[in-house]
Amino acid sequence: MEHDIPELRRRLAEAEQRENEAKQREIEKPPFQSSSTLAMLTYFLAWVYKQTQTRDPANADNKLRPAKIREWMGFPQEQTAV
After folding, report:
1. How much of the chain exceeds pLDDT 70, in percent?
2. Where is the composition biased (Basic and acidic residues) (predicted)?
């Protein structure tokens, strides 16, 4: 029984060291390191890019258009002045 105490202390010290190293790795981990987070971010960015495209005629709902159009009465005179 007495010879087990140093062995148990050694195991406890090793376990504490492994726990501290694991905590340190968690602190040093970049925020987007996990593959699931990267996959979700990639999917979201692709979705946003697709929603904001204005050059695709199939995406006519998201095109920028004025709310009201009115005639430019002085346009011919301004063009001749140029």
Report:
1. 72
2. 1-29
- Report the C-alpha gap between 36 and 44 in whole angstroms: 12
Q: pTM (2 decimals)? A: 0.33
**C-alpha to C-alpha distance for 19 and 15, rounded to whole angstroms:** 6
- 3-class state of residue 82 by DSSP: coil
DSSP assignment string, 3-64:
THHHHHHHHHHHHHHHHHHHHHHHHHS-TT-SHHHHHHHHHHHHHHHHHH--S-GGGGGGS-
For residue 80, the 8-state DSSP code is H
DSSP-derived secondary structure letter, 74: T
Is residue 53 within 8 A of residue 62, CB to CB? The reply is yes
Q: pLDDT-based confidence at 20, cuts 50/70/90?
A: confident
